[in-house]
């Protein structure tokens, strides 16, 4: 292949022959059933075999070019029409026989608009005869036909070298055909049935590799020698003494689970899933204090400065009367202060450090880091977690997330972690009432808000990121603040918070809002996670249709934190069925797990997980949602194997071991494969 074409393929992520073999079709055209032109139904897809009678390439109004190829079979005639592709004319010659596949349209006569075509030369087609034809994801300057030819050539020469990774037992159990066959059939299936067999096999293979990796990771973590903390009645009573409320049943249960982990010599690697407002912070504090009571340091990481600051203030309040030495470190801390904190971390003068991911940047050394808590995990990558792990010996790790993953899936996917569910809200919470406000109800909504403000409540008004442009975002939030201040709520105090402000300014505005110096806080999305202002009972989301479900749920989580009824008002006009469904879901339920499930369905797993962030390889063929039954099987098989042979040292596991290393490449650090 020449350099030009390799460049094009590289854009598709294809660099090697292996990549080509594993570049799977996104769809198939089933041309195996040829129809007659007389069977054309307007609006339906049709596949025909016909002869070219005439060709016309012309320029219509406004310079638009139209290529029409008139074809016929023994039952009728139809035109194949392409717009603005005049160069296609060279492909066709009167008298050629060809297959066409496309949607039937009626103009002055019957048309196929931009159909797929395959010209039959000397009675034979270029590509695998004519049957079920792959449709690949493309990039500019490379056509389906070209890519098909490339892949077909590669298949013919190299498919036989694709190796089976499965041990015999699995091949026998599932009656898998050889990988070489599966790879051929996934590209050019002889029949739909064989396509499905090949697909199932490759899906299983992909998930099996993933789950083997999970099993190895779990094992390597479990194999590490960690700290065995003591958490007896004394420590316990001490900690409880500083918590001003009674813990919920769920909090008690989760704390028990964490305590058991911390007492164990094996390092904790636990994921805490809890809905917004379920009270995760105090659990983090609890765990941190166990570490501190044992003479170790604890680190509490948040995804944004604002959150880190908030956590710091919260923790500070809790610890007022204790002797725990607390520190705060964020990216914007000034150099001198930073230096001092760093010194105190390395000589052990700080027990508990709260901060952003600045906490894991290279120069920072801990004296004896025993526990790491990572809040709002979806903003952190696995590798970052690893970096921090490396700072201590083998600190216990607790990851908290408020973007729940459907339960079954979480257990299966995060196979390397133990999972706790915080599925109960603190008492006295009243779920927010959510309304979707149509344009003509906006005035009514403003009146309602005015009434609540008169009762002493506070309001968030959220603006989305407009057109990905920070400038525009800023403008709309600023303009909106002016409008609210001058026109809608002239009697109220309206504050503004946006991403362009300096950290100190942001903190000041947040503090002012908390201290009720504003009635209304207009903000961009930076307020999304974790902000805690119990007196704010109204969340207005402008252009709600532009937010994802998880974001909407997070935003709504900012209210309903006190004992008053709270309200979430969604302004916006959805432009698609999906965005309408998102708003409907929000109105229907406040349950984070239900919302997660819906989100998963609407977005598809790829986007849902942002796989890279989770340290997962890109899934080429499987869909974690649809292929869940296969995932479960693959997981069971994988864990059985790794339990039996933890280092995959047996001869029959060498292939799978190699594959796992290939697929996980740079993420391999996460495991110990010997
Ligand atoms: P999240 O899980 O979203 O991080 P937080 O930890 O911020 O939730 O807790 C939300 C609010 O609930 C905080 O104001 C916190 O002090 C309060 N809270 C947490 N646990 C309890 C409890 N058991 N009883 C009463 N209030 C609680
Ligand atoms: Mg939180």
Describe the model:
The protein is of the alpha/beta class and 674 residues long. The protein has 22 helices and 21 strands. The protein folds into four domains: 160 residues, Nucleic acid-binding proteins (OB fold (Dihydrolipoamide Acetyltransferase, E2P), Beta Barrel); 90 residues, no CATH class; 155 residues, P-loop containing nucleotide triphosphate hydrolases (Rossmann fold); 157 residues, 3-Layer(aba) Sandwich (Rossmann fold). Strand 2 and strand 3 form a beta hairpin. It is globular. The chain binds adenosine-5'-diphosphate and magnesium ion. The site of magnesium ion has 4 residues, from helix 9.
List keywords for this structure.
674 residues; alpha/beta; OB fold (Dihydrolipoamide Acetyltransferase, E2P); Rossmann fold; 4 domains; seven-stranded parallel beta sheet; six-stranded parallel beta sheet; 22 helices; 18% strand; binds adenosine-5'-diphosphate; binds magnesium ion
Could you give the order of strands across the largest sheet? Answer: 11-12-10-13-14-9-15
Please indicate the percent range of residues in DSSP E strands (runs of 2 or more): 15-25%
Helix/strand/pairing category = alpha/beta
Q: In percent, how helical is the residue content?
A: 25-40%
How many beta-strand elements?
A: 21
CATH architecture of the largest domain: Beta Barrel
Estimated radius of gyration: 30 Å
- The CATH homologous superfamily of the largest domain: Nucleic acid-binding proteins
Number of helical stretches of at least 4 residues: 22
What compounds are bound to the protein? Answer: adenosine-5'-diphosphate, magnesium ion
Count up the domains.
4
CATH topology of the largest domain: OB fold (Dihydrolipoamide Acetyltransferase, E2P)
| Oligomer category | single chain
Return the CATH class of the largest domain.
Mainly Beta
């Amino acid at each position: 292949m020449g350099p030009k074409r390799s460049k094009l393929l590289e854009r598709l992520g294809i660099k090697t022959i292996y990549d080509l073999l594993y570049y799977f079709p996104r769809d198939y055209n089933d041309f195996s059933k040829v129809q007659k032109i007389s069977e054309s139904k307007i609006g339906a897809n049709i596949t025909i075999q016909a002869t070219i009678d005439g060709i016309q390439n012309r320029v219509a109004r406004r310079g638009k070019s139209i290529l029409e190829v008139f074809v016929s079979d023994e039952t009728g005639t139809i035109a194949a029409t392409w717009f603005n592709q005049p160069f296609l004319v060279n492909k066709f010659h009167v008298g050629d026989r060809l297959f066409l596949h496309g949607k039937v349209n009626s103009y002055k006569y019957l048309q196929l608009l931009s159909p797929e075509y395959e010209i039959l030369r000397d009675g034979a087609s270029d590509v695998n005869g004519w049957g079920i034809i792959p449709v690949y994801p493309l990039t500019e300057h490379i056509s389906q036909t070209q890519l098909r030819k490339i892949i077909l050539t590669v298949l013919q020469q190299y498919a036989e070298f694709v190796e089976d990774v499965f041990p015999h037992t699995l091949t026998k159990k599932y009656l898998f055909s050889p990988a070489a066959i599966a790879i051929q059939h996934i590209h050019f299936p002889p029949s739909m049935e064989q396509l499905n067999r090949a697909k199932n096999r490759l899906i299983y293979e992909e998930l099996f590799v993933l789950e083997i990796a999970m099993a190895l990771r779990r094992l390597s973590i479990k194999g590490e020698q960690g700290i065995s903390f003591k958490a007896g009645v004394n420590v316990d009573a001490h900690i409880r003494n500083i918590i001003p409320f009674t813990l919920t049943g769920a909090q008690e249960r989760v704390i028990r689970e964490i305590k058991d982990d911390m007492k164990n010599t094996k390092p904790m690697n636990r994921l805490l899933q809890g809905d917004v407002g379920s009270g995760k912070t105090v659990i983090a504090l609890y765990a941190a204090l166990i570490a501190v009571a044992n003479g170790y340091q604890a680190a509490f990481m948040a995804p944004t400065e604002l959150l880190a600051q908030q956590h710091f203030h919260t923790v500070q309040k809790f610890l007022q009367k204790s002797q725990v030495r607390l520190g705060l470190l964020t990216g914007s801390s000034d150099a001198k202060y930073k230096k001092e904190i760093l010194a105190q971390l390395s000589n052990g003068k700080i027990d508990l450090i709260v901060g952003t991911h600045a906490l894991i940047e290279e120069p920072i050394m801990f004296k004896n880091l025993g526990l790491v808590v990572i809040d709002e995990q979806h903003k952190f990558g696995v590798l970052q977690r690893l970096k921090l792990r490396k700072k201590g010996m083998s600190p216990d790790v607790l990851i908290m997330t408020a973007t729940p993953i459907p339960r079954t899936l979480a257990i299966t996917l995060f196979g390397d972690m133990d999972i706790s569910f915080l599925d109960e809200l603190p008492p006295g919470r009243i779920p927010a009432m959510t309304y979707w406000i149509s344009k003509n109800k906006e005035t009514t909504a403003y009146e309602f808000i005015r009434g609540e403000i008169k009762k002493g409540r506070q309001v968030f008004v959220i603006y989305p990121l407009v057109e990905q442009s920070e400038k525009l975002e800023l403008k709309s939030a600023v303009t909106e603040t002016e409008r609210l201040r001058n026109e809608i709520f002239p009697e109220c105090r309206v504050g503004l918070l946006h991403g362009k402000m300096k950290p100190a300014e942001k903190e000041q505005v947040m503090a002012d809002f908390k201290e009720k110096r504003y009635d209304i806080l207009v903000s961009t999305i930076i307020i999304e996670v974790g902000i805690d202002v119990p007196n704010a009972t109204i969340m207005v989301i402008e252009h709600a249709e532009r937010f994802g479900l998880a974001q909407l749920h997070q935003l709504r989580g900012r209210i309903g934190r006190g004992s008053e009824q709270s309200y979430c008002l969604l302004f916006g006009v959805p432009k698609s069925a999906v965005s309408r469904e998102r708003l409907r879901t929000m109105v229907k339920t406040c349950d984070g797990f239900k919302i997660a499930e819906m989100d998963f369905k609407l977005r598809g797993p790829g986007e849902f997980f942002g796989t890279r962030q989770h340290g997962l390889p890109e899934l080429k063929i499987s869909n974690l949602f649809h292929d869940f039954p296969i995932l479960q099987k693959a997981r069971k098989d994988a864990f059985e194997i790794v339990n039996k042979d933890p280092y995959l040292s047996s001869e029959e596991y060498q292939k799978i071991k190699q594959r796992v290393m290939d697929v996980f490449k740079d993420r391999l650090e996460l495991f110990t494969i010997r």
